[in-house]
Amino acid sequence: MPPMRVVLFVLLWFNFFGFALIGQTQLPKKNEINKLTSQAAKLRQSGDFEKSLLISRLALQKSITIHDNVLIAKNYNNVAANYNDLVEFDKAIFYYNKGLNYANFTQNDSIKQKINNNLGNVFCFEKKKYEKGIYYFKKALEYSEKIKDSAQMAFTNLNMTWAFFDIGKFREGENNLKFINSYYQKYHNDVTIVVLNMLNGMYYNYKNENEKAELYFEEAIRLGKKMNEKSDLSFCHLEFSKFLLKQKDYKRAYENLELYTKLNEEIYAEEKLEKANIEGVNLELDEYKRTIDKIENERNLQYQSLKKSRIIVLLFILAIFVLLLFLNSLIKNNKFRVKSNADLMLANKKLIKANKKAEESSKLKTQFVSTISHELRTPLYGVVGITDLLLEEHKELASSPHLNSLKFSARYLLSLVNDILQINKIEENKIVLEEFTFNLTDEFYMIKNSLSFIAQNNNNKVYIDVDPSIPESLIGDKLRFAQILMNLVSNALKFTKNGEVRLIARLIEINKNMHCIEVKIADTGIGIAPLDQEIIFDKFVQVGRKEVDYQGTGLGLPIVKRLLELFGSKITVESELGRGTTFTFCISFECNPVKTIEIINNIQVDLTSSQVFKVLVVEDNRINQLITRKIIEKNNYSCIVVDDGFKALEILDNEEFDVILMDINMPLMNGFETSRRIRQKGIETPIIALTAFDKNEITEEAIGVGINDIIVKPFEAIQLFKIINCLILKTKKLV
């Protein structure tokens, strides 16, 4: 016989032997236990709690013997109901919960409904734990709906309504009350009619429909008297007295309160008689509790004795089974390991490809931003330059709204390009803070003057308040600091009309040479909604555009936030709609007189000269040629313009120049290659790159080919001549 068949034969034999042993004992029948359960319930209802508990104990023992969870739950429910009637609510809750545990192992929704309803009654009306009680009522309703027992649904809804109304939650109990009313209209069940009328009275009292409320209260009292429902009647008098007190009918309110007290005394007298009997049986009741617990222990011991003879065989079978599982697991694990290694290698290859794609995407993004900025700055140089030339050559056009609008639009577009480049550089960690010496008050006034046009346009006043204890000379990256202020103050001015903007600086802390300064920019503008305050520092987010177009790229505040992070600082915002906004940040600057003098000494002085210099301009764009020539000749310099690098090399073979202005992006031969070939010829003439590329992107390559300095288009004429003079004079001194 094969080994597996032997194992199966042993198991079948052992199970047959075990069931034979159990079958030797005569088991009780369900009909017998059901009769005992019903008898115990009737005895409890008649007030014979001692006999009810004795019979419940016997029925519970028999139920446990046949392992019938439904009968066990019913008898625990009986025991709990006895303790509930004996006003021992903690014991009642204990046994209700035991019954519910067994009921939950069954599919019998009826017993689950009953126990949940009973627990709801105890917690709501005896323990006054309404939230817990309402939870059990809701569970009871779920089971009532499953078994489609409308009577139980009505009864549970009645209890839940009463619980809600007791704690003043009339809206929550409104639907439950509607259900009971519709149920009564359909079935005319008089069991709950007294309480139903009382609840209707309470509801219409809450709704301030006084006539209806009074009619329902009076009907409840009439029916309570007729049906001799003392407990329900007492509550009707109590709620009616509350209603009358609210109506300031003090006499009738007092009369009903007196009736409530009288009925309670009668009920209390009856309870005292019951409690007198309770004291005599308390010891026995405690014994019943111990006996009920003992029944389950005996059951466990009985089964353990039957199992002893099977333990060795079961352990042997389990050991074999575990061994087989272990061997099977080893085989599966080995297969899984091989498959996992193959999957891991495949995933690793995919990850390498994805990483390469991500790097390529990042490079393409940087290249795209650089190309777009160049393509935008080149025509912008022409627009801004021609506008400036027109304003200078034709003074009568200075007041022209069309020309001023053109200039403003070009500047605005340039600001957009700069914002995009700035946020891109910050994200790629390409910005390094520099050290300059500056005066905080001067910076504030510079910002105020720069934005005076926006202030005047919106009829705003700008106030500056600087703590006098802040040193006059600070060291830090004033350009980035000014950019932070510029963005915040311009925002404040744009979103404020006929109001004021304040720039406030306070010295917070001094740590050695570092001075921590708190800066606030406060306005009286439209304010920012609380929800918007969480997103205003995200890129391209704009708020407050419902009624007025405030313009902007949505990059100003993200740039501010990231620049402050470079300074090791954070920004906070406080705002109220219609009242204004305040941005606050703390930033530390160094104050060191010795270091300040060194920085000042290293600053290049703007050298001016009355000497006429000869300038070679290498530029392929016709408009840019015109603008650059006009700017240079206006300063009394001589200027020659060539279209490409080859012509530049050709003219340099025949003529000498004091400085060369070199465009970078040219056809045929770009500015880098042209500069390299100029240096290869041994020509030392200073070369200044005039380009629309970002300076940081081309600095390294520019130095490598011999370019002396870089100016980004569009530029200020003063900046150009300052660099030209400095480079020419420096070159002549070296010669």
Automatic annotation (TrEMBL):
Name under which the protein is recorded: histidine kinase
Domain Histidine kinase as annotated: residue spans: 371-591
Documented EC number(s): 2.7.13.3
Pfam families: HATPase_c (PF02518), HisKA (PF00512), Response_reg (PF00072)
Residues annotated with 4-aspartylphosphate modification: D663
Residue intervals passing through the bilayer: 6-23, 311-331
Classification via InterPro entries: CheY-like_superfamily (IPR011006), HATPase_C_sf (IPR036890), HATPase_dom (IPR003594), His_kinase_dom (IPR005467), HisK_dim/P_dom (IPR003661), HisK_dim/P_sf (IPR036097), Sig_transdc_His_kin-like_C (IPR004358), Sig_transdc_resp-reg_receiver (IPR001789)
Keyword annotations of the record: Coiled coil, Kinase, Membrane, Phosphoprotein, Transferase, Transmembrane, Transmembrane helix
Coiled-coil regions listed in the entry: 278-305
Catalytic activity: ATP + protein L-histidine = ADP + protein N-phospho-L-histidine
Ranges of residues in domain Response regulatory: 614-728
GO molecular function: phosphorelay sensor kinase activity
